[in-house]
Write a structure and sequence with these properties.
This protein has 369 residues and is mostly helical. It has 14 helices and 6 strands. The protein folds into 2 domains: 3-202 and 317-364, Peroxidase, domain 1 (Orthogonal Bundle), CATH 1.10.520; 211-306, Peroxidase, domain 2.
Length: 369
């Protein structure tokens, strides 16, 4: 089904099913053996319905790993097929471009203001609640420089699609990962209500922070050292504009268009690619005694990173929420594009990459003129 037709169908379903979509779900979404896991449709026992375990692209819906609304299993997820298409097609155009990258960063800047310390005090804290596209002041903060365009694009969607800002923003985050070939299929949960409050300032890390401060900030968000190191691997598809404006548009690794582990190896060992820009924080985390082992774990180790990143991003996308109150709509997520079959002599082949994009992201691509 082409994007426009799919979007139309999903929009019709969306308006027909204008009813609350929150419902209790599985007992423990982080436990792959949880018998109440609504995922696991592929039966590979890893608690999701992705066939990463045997390396195949799942046969979801159309045979190209693209679940279709006509095969929806949870009625409460039906409206989210249209939301998926609006984001993956209407905004990302099926590709790992500026909007997809910005959406991943935005997910972190929205959720990363969550603080266990503030929560314990009963003070207003951040959360994965979409306040970045709901409160007009947050995006004007210096720490959020560069996110204005994606915020402007996503902000109207809650009203247009009848979905909460948190669901829009964090679906955009997990779809942004998937838009990048190699990006894993992070579980997609929905059912967040209106944002809790304006997020507090000064919680997000910046590249000048020493490693102990970075560790403290991530621990206060509830992340382990390993999760922090896995999460910053999102820089695999990132570019900088404001840290060194003279090098605006330089990327954090030499393969910015794919979600691979080159970021880890190049940050730890350096690269001769003049277009690569390394953040001080990433270099410091790669070399610091308390983080080095975790950082080096992922060099040349995409499977470990995929698994850890999926778990950490899911945790990030639900910060501040009791996940048992949310709804697992991972069924809307297309399959990850597996880089292994696209790699020749250790390098992703551009022709194979484009062919895979055409095949597995077909409904959302904009035909070239
Ligand atoms: C130590 C923690 C982190 C620091 C200090 C940091 C800092 C930065 C900085 C300074 C930029 C460049 C902004 C610009 O100049 O345009 C950036 C970009 C980016 N960051 Fe991070 N970041 C951190 C963690 C994360 C995490 C946890 C994620 C997501 C899971 C993430 C995702 C991204 C992405 C995708 C970009 C590229 C955005 C684009 O290309 O438009 N970052 N980050």
């Amino acid at each position: 089904m082409r994007f426009s037709a799919s979007l139309l169908l999903a929009s019709l379903v969306l308006s027909a099913l204008a009813k609350p979509y929150w419902r209790r779900q599985e007992t423990d979404p982080t436990d792959p053996t949880d018998p109440t896991d609504p995922g696991g449709a592929d039966g590979d026992g890893d608690g999701d319905d992705d066939t990463d375990a045997d390396g195949n692209v799942p046969n979801l819906g159309d045979g190209n790993g693209i679940p279709d609304v006509s095969n929806a299993t949870n009625p409460q997820c039906v409206p989210f097929y249209g939301v998926r298409d609006a984001i993956l097609g209407g905004i990302f155009q099926g590709r790992c471009g500026d909007s997809a990258r910005a959406a991943v960063r935005l997910a972190f800047h929205d959720a990363g203001t969550f603080s266990l310390a503030l929560q314990a005090l009963g003070d207003p804290t951040g959360a994965a609640d979409g306040s970045m596209i709901w409160d007009p002041t947050e995006v004007t903060r210096t720490e959020n420089n560069g996110l204005q365009t994606i915020v402007g694009i996503l902000a109207p969607l809650p009203a247009q699609l009848g979905v909460s800002p948190g669901d829009i923003l964090h679906l955009a985050g997990v779809l942004g990962v998937l838009a990048c070939p190699g990006g894993p299929r992070v579980d997609a949960f929905v059912g967040r209500g209106l944002p809790l409050n304006t997020a507090p300032t000064g919680r997000l890390p910046n590249p000048d922070d020493p490693v102990p401060l970075l560790l403290a900030k991530f621990a206060d968000m509830s992340f382990s050292v390993r999760s922090m190191v896995a999460l910053i691997g999102a820089h695999t598809s990132g570019k900088q504009r404001f840290v060194d404006p003279a090098r605006n548009g330089s990327s954090f690794d030499s393969t910015v268009d794919v979600w691979d582990v080159d970021f880890y190896g190049e940050t730890a060992h350096g690269t001769s690619d003049p277009n690569v820009f390394m953040l001080d924080s990433d270099v410091n985390i790669a070399g610091n005694a308390s983080t080095k082992a975790e950082f080096h774990r992922y060099i040349h180790n995409q499977p470990d990173w995929d698994e850890d990143y999926r778990a950490a991003h899911f945790q990030m996308s639900t910060l501040g929420y009791n996940v048992t109150t949310l709804i697992n709509c991972t069924e809307i997520m297309p399959a990850s594009i597996n880089l292994t079959t696209l790699t020749i002599n250790g390098t992703v082949d551009p022709t194979l990459l484009e062919a895979a994009t055409q095949k597995y992201r077909a409904p959302w691509l904009v035909p070239s003129s």
